[in-house]
From TrEMBL:
Pfam families: adh_short
Signal sequence coordinates: none
Domain (Ketoreductase): residue spans on this chain: 5-173
InterPro entries recorded: KR_dom (IPR057326), NAD(P)-bd_dom_sf (IPR036291), SDR_fam (IPR002347)
Domain of life: Bacteria
This protein's UniProt keywords: Oxidoreductase
Family: Belongs to the short-chain dehydrogenases/reductases (SDR) family.
Listed name of the protein: Short-chain dehydrogenase
Amino acid sequence: MNEQKAIFITGGGSGIGQATAKLFAAKGWRVGLADVNAKGLTETAAMLPAGMATTYTMDVRDRDAWVANLDAFTATTGGRLDVLFNNAGIGTGGPLIEMSFDDLDRVVAINLVGVLNGAKIGYAYLSTTPGSCLLNTASASAIYGSSGLSVYSATKFGVRSLSEALDGEWYGAGVKVRDLVPSFIDTPLLATPAGNSNYSIKQVVTNAGLELTGVDAVAQAAWDAVHGDKVHTYVGKTADRMAFAARWMPGRLRKMMRRGIAEAN
């Protein structure tokens, strides 16, 4: 098997995926970049050392595309897949009663079913590479449900629980499963309108008194998670504080979430 390690990243055209690709490539890894945004993929690939990346325009809802692109990528790595980074996601939110069913279905299909697709299909590739890891992107919304982001929170709780379950299921096969639980990340995704309202997800987050975290911190956390032993890696002050408060001060979190949606309105 080829000695050069390899990572396949969904959502690689921007944000966390882009930052993670830059870090792993700088450390000598071969990188597979997947995204629905072909322009973003080209921009990310241009940031990496020459010859280190291959790009795949792909929707994580498309199971045939998963198979075709993982086949294509592992053909360039001598069959090796050390990390599959299930990172692609969208931030459409808003109060549940204001969301359209189309938006609701799309968030669930991309943020949760897309991750399930990557896990189920990716296992065959990961299980042939000793010490491999499935890495999923959860969220601080998976610590305590975020008002104004109810469906998004539900999908990220699902990602978190999936990571715990698969860490047990795949232990015997030698495949690690980890997730990132980052604070809300300061990327264009947070500029998304929250549902049908005239306020953004970023406004909901900041009005609740929650801090934003830079993508470089998340990329470093991805590296640490892949090489560490914890299932959940919390990233940023907000995630740390929310995890502490969820355990010891749940009443305070309830008030924060109420304030966030009230002030956004």
